[in-house]
Structures are given as C-alpha cells and as structure tokens.
Design brief:
- With about 425 residues, the protein is an alpha/beta fold.
- The chain has a single domain, classed as Alpha-Beta Barrel (TIM Barrel).
- It is built from 14 helices and twelve strands.
- The strands form three sheets. An eight-stranded parallel beta barrel has the order 3-4-5-8-9-10-11-12, surrounded by five helices.
- The longest helix is centred in the last third of the chain and has 23 residues.
- It is globular and about 55 Å long.
- The chain binds flavin mononucleotide.
- Flavin mononucleotide (FMN) binds next to strand 4 and helix 13.
Length: about 425
C-alpha cells in the first residue's frame, strides 16, 4: 500500500496477523454506552451513535464493554450477548458502519465490580471485597466448574459476534474486571490451578483467548485489553504484564490494547505517572508500553490514555512505540476527529476532562478519602456518558462539563432506577 510522502504516519494502514487490514492508525477506544433497552438488547440509539462514529473514518471502532453473563452487569444499559439476545438488533448494530470502519465488540464480565443495584452476590476469583462506599457487596469465590462455564460463555459470545456481522472481538482483561481480578494477586487468593503463580493467575485469560479463537477461526481479529499495571500495592505489576503480553502473542492475538488501573485506582482516565518527556506526560502509559511492545514481537500494540496532540501521536508511531492510537474521550466531543487528522489537520483533540470541576477542600482532587476520589473520577467519566447519550440522540455535545460529584450522583440514581426496570430473560 503506497503512501504519499506528505501523509501523516497515522494515515498508514496496518495489516493484522489474521490478515485483516485497518485503514489507519486511529481507533475509537471502548467506551461503555449504556444504551441497551430493559431487555439488555441493542437499540436504534446505539445504531445512530455508531453511524456517527463510523462516519468519522477511524481505522477501528471498539465497542464499549458487552456482557457475557446477564446476571452481572458493569452498569445498566450494557448490551448482553448470549442465547437470549435479540439477534436482529445486534445485526443492525454490527452493520451501522457507513464509512466501512470495522466494529469490534468488547466482551466483559465485571466480577466483583458489579454494584448492589445489580447483584447482592457478585462473583470473583476470591471473596475479596471492593470497599468503595458500600456500593459493592462482598463477592463469592467462583467454583472451578463455574470458571470453566465462563470460559465457554466467552467463546459462545465470540461465535455470535462473528456470525452476526461484527468485524472482530476484544476480550476485556483490564480495569479490575473479572479477568483482571484473576491476574491480580490482590484479588486472586486461590490455591488451585487458577491462582498462585503468574502462570496460574493468567490461566483464565489464556483459556478465554483460546476459546474465543476456536470460536471465530484464524482469519477473524481477536484482541485483548490488558493493564500495563494495576498501580495498586500488591496488584498486577508491570513486569507481570510484560510476561502476559508474551503469552498473548504466542496465543495468536491480533492486537493488544494497553491501559491501566482498576475502580480502586482509576488510572485509565486519570493517571499521574512520573514521565520524563512531554509526550509521555500526554500519553500516560507510554513509558509502560515500551517493554510490552518488545514482548509482543510482531503482534501489534494499541495504546489508550491521554493522546491529545497529532505531534505526540505521530511521534509514538514514528518511534515504533505503538502501532494503533486508542482515543476515547475526545470521540465524545468530536466524532469526526479521525477524518481530519488523517487529512493532516493538526489542531489538538478536545480535552474537556481538564475543565471538570470537583469539590472544594476535602471534596477536591487532593481528598484523602478513597471514596471521594472515586466519586469524583466516576462523575468525570459519567459526564462523558451524557455526551454519548447526546450523540446517540443526534444532538451536539455540551460545551462545558459540570461538577463531578453532581454528575456522579445523577448517574448512580439512573443506574439504580434502570436496574429496577430491567426485564430478565432466563
Ligand atoms: C465514558 C467512558 C467509558 C469507558 N468505558 C470503557 C469500556 O467499556 N471498556 C474499556 O476497556 N475501557 C473503557 N473506558 C476507558 C477508555 O477505553 C480509555 O482507555 C480511556 O478513556 C483513556 O483514553 P482517553 O484519554 O483517550 O479518553 C471508558 C472511558 C470513558 C471515559
């Protein structure tokens, strides 16, 4: 594929190991949409949202997390992909791609990060509670047979994803959800084959990847989102992520997306890692991506978190530090951003997260309370949920963010109300 000398690096196509070619290096990173109906099915609003994003000419669109087990949601409005799903609705979502950008579905199970509105008995590798203001009940440890059933559930969901016309699948192994809980010695205290050594803690992830690959065949893109580290004492560490990346490459994954953090340490949207260069301050996991890049060998790496200037994006590609640039929040404000970046229009991406106001004094950014810090981060994220709703209604996004705690409270109230309205299909 020939490129004009003046074309920015981010306009270059990328061939994945499975043979699929991405048209350029900009990916819309996964962002939970909350747009499913009360039966957990895809909706016309979701189709409208993805039409809008697809028109923006990104090389890749990754969906927000979609659940493989309808008993456990990450939040109200999650789509569920299982044997009860409305396949016509899913097919309409899969084909909402006027610009032709591939749409990959991100599969997830929240594990202990499933709040009390949805369950009073979450499941996890071990009964380690998530102490965030009483919002999460103490989890129950999964039995070995349940773990095996979950591996099958991921595989069955992936088979549906392919059959219904999506362009690829991503396994969510980051951000403190179930697979990430297995990887972390802080949340995985098991003494059987699923816990202990890193090889045992990674067994669930690798079994899921194998099941997914078997379900979709060799020519369909399979990706994994992995934490570069949890950034928590006793959590999944960077050197372990490097090793797991090596195993993922050997398992034939097509693209590893690197992020970081969990609900306890919301680094994925709010990292303040030490950084030696301006570029690394902007793309806050860049310093961690290097070792993972090496471990991956020829398997491409996508990095998400903080990219806001074409200069930093181009440089990360030119230096060979990343292959795909994951961009999240700016897509909520400027859905067409990839088209103009690829065309060489180099204005920075919108970053309204800088203007989100948290409370004063003890409610502010320096709060000593983990609950307050988490509430502020939740509110800052939920403001982007509201912009996603606006895009899905065909409206323009808001200009100015509000107060984080107020947005968080509004979101929690909606989550609780919609959880009560859910219609179960057993
Ligand atoms: C509103 C919102 C929802 C998100 N939902 C998901 C999700 O469903 N799955 C996921 O892997 N990451 C999710 N993320 C994290 C993003 O994929 C991305 O890693 C993060 O926003 C950092 O990239 P950015 O600085 O370009 O926004 C979400 C982030 C935001 C802001």
């Amino acid at each position: 594929m020939r490129r004009e000398a003046s074309e920015p690096a981010l306009a270059a196509p990328l061939a994945l190991p499975c043979g699929v070619v991405l048209a350029n290096r900009i990916a819309k990173a996964p962002m939970t949409e909350g747009l499913a109906d009360a039966g957990d099915d895809a909706t016309p609003a979701l189709v409208r949202l993805y039409r809008r994003w697809a028109e923006g000419a990104a090389g890749l669109l990754v969906s927000g997390n979609v659940m493989v087990d309808r008993r456990f949601l990450e939040r109200s409005g999650n789509v569920v992909v299982d044997q009860h799903s409305d396949e016509t609705a899913l097919r309409a979502w899969a084909t909402a791609r006027p610009g032709g950008a591939p749409l990959w579905l991100q599969l997830n199970h929240p594990g202990r990060q499933c709040n009390r509105f949805h369950t009073h008995e979450p499941v996890a590798p071990s009964p380690v509670p998530l102490a965030l203001g009483g919002l999460f009940a103490r989890p129950r440890a999964l039995a070995a047979a349940e773990i095996e059933a979950l591996v099958e559930a991921f595989g069955a969901a992936a088979a549906r994803v392919r059959r219904l016309g999506f362009g690829g699948v991503q396994v969510h192994a980051a951000h403190g959800y179930l697979i990430s809980q297995f990887l972390s010695p802080r949340t995985n205290l098991r003494s059987d084959a699923w816990g202990g050594s890193l090889a045992n803690r990674a067994r669930f992830l690798l079994a899921v990847v194998r099941a997914v690959r078997e379900a979709v065949g060799p020519a369909f893109p399979v990706s994994v989102k992995l934490n570069a580290a949890d950034f928590l004492r006793g959590g999944f560490e960077h050197h372990e992520a490097v090793e797991v990346a090596r195993w993922l490459a050997a398992a034939g994954v097509d693209l590893v997306e690197v992020s970081g953090g969990t609900y306890e340490r919301v680094a994925f949207v709010d990292a303040h890692q030490p950084a030696s260069t301006t570029r690394a301050r902007e793309a806050y996991f860049l310093a961690y991506a290097r070792a993972i890049r090496e471990a991956l060998g020829r398997t491409p790496l996508m990095l998400s978190g903080g990219f806001r200037t074409p200069a930093a994006m181009d440089a990360a590609l030119a230096e060979g530090e990343v292959d795909v640039l994951g961009v999240g929040r700016p897509f909520c404000l400027e859905p067409g951003l990839a088209r103009r970046l690829v065309a060489g229009h180099r204005a920075p991406l919108p970053s309204p997260e800088r203007g989100i106001r948290v409370g004063p004094g003890p409610l502010g950014p320096g709060s000593r309370s983990r609950f307050v810090r988490s509430l502020n981060a939740q509110g800052a994220t939920a403001w982007f949920y509201e912009q996603i709703y606006r895009l899905a209604r065909g409206e323009e996004p808001e200009e100015r963010p509000g107060w984080a705690a107020a947005v968080a409270a509004r979101h929690l109230w909606q989550d609780a109300r919609r959880a009560r309205q859910r219609r179960w299909r057993a």
